Amino acid sequence: MEAVRAISESGEAHKTVEVAFTVYEERGMHGAKHFDMSKIESTQAIVLDSGGPIGTIITTAPGQQSLKITIEGKPAHAGLEPEAGINALTVAADAISQMQLSRIDDETTANIGVVQGGQATNIVMPELKIEAEARSLNDEKLAKQVAHMISTFESAA
C-alpha cells in the first residue's frame, strides 16, 4: 500500500497500477477462486505472499490440487464380530503405505493433512475422511501425482 501511495503522490508518469487482495489462501485459495480475472488488464503481477526474508523475490509458484477422499467401510461390533465389518482405517492405511508423499521431486510435493474417522472404540470404523493435496511447478507432474494418489486409494478399496 505504501508503494501505491508513493506512486500516486509522486505525480510522475507511470503504468496503470491494479491492486487485488484475496483471503484464505492456506485453506484452499477461497478468495482467489472467486476473483474475477476479467476485471484485470495487467499482463504482469507482483504477488506479496511468500515466506522468507523481506525483499525475497519469488519468480514461480506451484499449481495445487486438493483432494477430499471418503472411505466407506462397514460397521460391526469390534468385540463380538469384528470380522463382519470392513475397517475404513485399514483400507486407508493400506493405500497410504503405498503412496508417494512428501517431497516427490524438486518441483513436486504431496501431503495428507487431515484424517477424521471413527465413532467409538467398540465399533469397526465404518467411515474415514481424508483431506490431501499435491503441489508442483510443473502441471504434468501435478496431474501425475494426483492421479497416483487417487489410483492408490481406488486400488486399496
Automatic annotation (TrEMBL):
Kindly list the cofactors needed.
Zn(2+)
Q: Which InterPro entries match?
A: Bact_exopeptidase_dim_dom (IPR036264), Peptidase_M20_dimer (IPR011650)
Q: Which domain of life is it from?
A: Bacteria
Q: Does the keyword Cell cycle apply?
A: no
Q: Which UniProt keywords apply?
A: Zinc
Provide any one GO MF term from the record.
Answer: hydrolase activity
Q: Is the Zinc keyword given for this protein? A: yes
PANTHER family registered for this protein in UniProt: PEPTIDASE, PEPTIDASE T
According to UniProt, the name of this protein is Peptidase M20 dimerisation domain-containing protein
Source species of the chain: Shewanella benthica
